[in-house]
Amino acid sequence: xxxxxxxxxARSGGGFLRVGLPILVVVIVAAAVIVGVVLKSNANNANGxxxxxxxxxxxxxxxxxxxxxxGNTVDGIQSNSAEQLIYHIHAHLAMYINGKQKLLPFGxxxxxxxxxxxxxxxxxxxGGSKFYWLHTHDETGVIHIETPAQHTYTxxxxxxxxxxxxxxxxxxxxxxxxxxxxxxxxxxxxxxDIPLTAHNVIQLDMGTPxxxxxxxxxxxxx
Length: 222
Prior knowledge:
Blueprint: H1 2-11, H2 13-46, E1 79-80, E2 87-97, E3 100-102, E4 110-111, E5 115-119, E6 122-127, E7 130-132, E8 134-135, E9 142-147, H3 155-162, E10 166-167, E11 170-171, E12 174-175, E13 178-182, E14 185-187, E15 201-206
Parallel strand pairs: 2-15
Antiparallel strand pairs: 1-7, 2-3, 2-9, 4-7, 5-6, 8-9, 10-11, 11-12, 13-14, 13-15
């Protein structure tokens, strides 16, 4: 009789609640974990890879650095264990998508792990395992051109290093007509060909051009 009552209890609703509910909770928790992993993976894959620790994850940037070069030579641009200061100049890039400014991420052209500093302009990458001759230390839009010999690189070279597309109708993950300005004047060629010369101020607008153009004053010493 006791055995019969035990079997009957296991088949009743109360038996299911005692045995099935804990299993259901485990299944729900596991599913939530899987969904979180998938969403994170999809976010990384949308940018072509997984971001290293300390990389720029701000939603204000045009694209993150998941696709950037990590030591291999790109367009003849090499990486070294230290910055090359024989030829040292700076250019500036501002980007607008349908009137909304998008920033350059810090750490483009700098291979992690990063040594970070906090500045009034935000995070600043003070060090890394390798430095490419073209790189960014912060989100101000300043592109550092630091090479062992004088050479004129282009905005296309920088985007190739960043791992992002640039053409007359695409900037990073965004597609549409691009209007380019250099020093406040319209640039009619392919934006990839814009030279990164000393204190060149570049603006790329997708959609309605942003007027007046965004001028930039380089900090003292740059």
